Amino acid sequence: MSGISAGSRAEDEAEDRADQDTYDVAVIGYGPTGVTAANLLGAAGLRVVVLERDAEIYARARAISTDEEVLRIWQRAGLAERLKLDMLADRPLDFVDARGRTILSAHPTPRGHGHPPQMFLYQPALEQVLRDGVDRYPNVEVLLRHECLRLRPAADGAGVELTVAGTADDSVRRLRARYVIAADGGSSLTRAQLNVGYEGRTYEDRWVVIDTKMIEPWPDHDRLRFRCDAGRPAVDCPTPLGHHRWEFPILPGDDEEYLTSDEAIHALVSRYGIGEHQIKILRATVYSHHVRFAARFRVGRVFLAGDAAHAMPPWIGQGMAAGVRDVANLCWKLDAVLRGELLESVLDSYEAERKPHVKEITKRAVFVGRIITERRLAVTRVRDAVLPFLNRVPGFARLLQDSNWIPAAHYAEGLQARPRTKAAGHQIPQPWVTGPDGTRVRLDDVLAGRWLLLHAEPPTPQPAWDRCGVPSLTVLPAGSCPAPGVVVDDEGVLLPWMTERRATTLALRPDAYVYAAAPSAAQLPPPPAGFAPASRTATSTATQGTP
Q1: DSSP secondary structure letters along 82-128
Q2: Which of 100, 249, 319, 410 has the most crowded Cβ, counting Cβ within 10 A?
């Protein structure tokens, strides 16, 4: 009997070990894209493992800004307000000529996502807050100093097997995950293992990126300037927490090693009146600019995200933002598929929705970069003469000045009903609203990451959706009294948005994008095939614990 008991214990322990090494999602890479995924998946209650080869946060500040849509994503993780404490909002942006004269000014204008339209950040501090956010979730296991050596489909076809090396102790272990998000950067080993092409180009010019600590402020130190100097263009950028960033191209004939020295750096910034006593040089690194796209964003149960899927020049500050948008699009779909709420085929919509938007943003980044880095004297003379003139022309000036060269995420294809409507594929704005309980919150805190019907007038019954138990909210104009089942549009934003798109009923996805819309008294198209939403509690992200 004792032998049987011992055998049973051994079998139980083996089963326990197998269970401990099995996850819903494995995330490879723990930069901004991977850590955002870990927060979103952790909040969903999924069992997640994160693999990161480095022991610490990467010290070099790469991204320097983000936008309101990305803050809205971090709001879903309950971290937006904490992150904003370490950011600079709504700083002016100027394009200046070789003599420092402004040829174009841009003013970030809100797009209705409920946060400042542009925020400057210090990336190491941002990543620390996001990692602290992951610590809230016991269902997320973070393995630092671990690298994925190999991944392959599981024999039963229901997952992915990962062979993982611990670089601290030379250990090797095997993990299993239902799905994998590869967010391991532009040189992604995962992408290489999957034999996925990474097509595009690398620009010849290399740039030295200089991060400094500001010791003594100078006039307009908090103003972003693109210095469009044919002799040597530059980026002159404020960053929060007392930092400042410059970027300079390495020109033909330059000694790259010397250009990263303190002596060379002080000489470069002295042309703008910055003395050695005003800054402390933290680091100088040389980068190349890339325009690349993975041939596929999905291979079976493995998904590429962030720089592993695409790379763009930094001119409009959207490289990191694109990766955050990737996982915001993907994570709720993985959650829904794993819970049986949606069919597995829905995951094909990830690439269909994200790739066109990333390509459009990259195109805009390349265009803005050409304005900044143009070095042909004849062309720069025309630019410096024409842009100030256009800056004074009504209409065209607004187009130039409001910095809306970042295209809004709008999905022409993917997970939406057919036939398409004017509202489908768009994310609804996020005003401040009064919720059913009388509390004033941002709209997404009421929507709570659920499938939901939104009505602009007394609801028209929607039997196909009602049978699935999809909840409804009716939007009332500002000044209305709060009540169960209604939300008050305090800022007068949401109702006009619906009117403009001729929609009185919206079927919203969990990411607040419109799946389907219908005019007054009309029926919505049916839910997606296989739709079986689980009951979810409408818990506001505003009440989630913050690190």
Answers
A1: HHHTT-EES--EEEE-TTS-EEEEE-----SSSS-SEEE--HHHHHH
A2: 319
Q: How many helices (H) and strands (E) does the chain have?
A: 15, 26
Which candidate, 134, 150, 516, 158, places its Cα nearest to that of 327?
Answer: 134
Q: Give the per-residue pLDDT at 271.
A: 93
User: Which amino acid, one-letter code, is at 121?
Assistant: L
**Residue at token pair 């299993």:** 176
Half-sphere exposure of 343 (CA within 13 A, CB side): 10
* Ordered DSSP codes for 36-76: HHHHHHHHTT--EEEEESSSS---S----EEEHHHHHHHHH
Q: What pLDDT, on the 0 to 100 scale, is given for residue 16?
A: 41
Q: What is the mean pLDDT of residues 299-313?
A: 97
pLDDT at residue 483 greater than cutoff 90:
yes
Residue type, 457: E
Q: What is the pLDDT of residue 151?
A: 95
Averaged pLDDT for residues 52-74: 89
Contacts of 257 (CB under 8 A, 6+ apart): none
pLDDT band at 80 (very low <50, low <70, confident <90, very high): very high
DSSP-derived letter for residue 83 is H
Question: Given pLDDT bands bounded at 50, 70 and 90, which one contains residue 536?
Answer: low
Give the distance from CA 293 to its chain's centroid. Answer: 17
**At 352, which helix (H) or strand (E)?**
helix 349-373
Residue 11 has pLDDT above 50, yes or no: no
Give the C-alpha separation, 213 to 356, whole Å.
Answer: 38
Q: How many CA atoms lie within 13 A of 67 on its CB side?
A: 25
Distance between CA atoms of residues 389 and 62, nearest Å: 34
Amino acid letter, 191: R
Note the pLDDT of residue 290: 92
> 140-144 and 146-153 as β-strands: parallel, antiparallel, unpaired?
unpaired
- DSSP secondary structure code for residue 278 in this structure: G
Identify whether the C-beta of residue 452 lies closer than 8 Å to the C-beta of residue 428. Answer: no
Tokens representing 138 are 């016991």
Whether the per-residue pLDDT at 10 is higher than 50: the answer is no
Question: H-type helices in 292-318, by residue range?
Answer: none
Taking Cα atoms as reference points, which of 291, 283, 209, 311 lies closest to residue 250? 209
SS3 290: strand
Task: State pLDDT tens for residues 240-275.
Answer: 999 999 999 999 999 999 999 999 999 999 999 999
SS (H, E, C) 505-538: EEEECCCCEEEEEECCCCCCCCCCCCCCCCCCCC
Cα 498–chain centre separation: 26
Which stretches of 391-456 are DSSP H helices? 396-401, 443-447
Cis peptide before 419 (omega within 30 of 0): yes
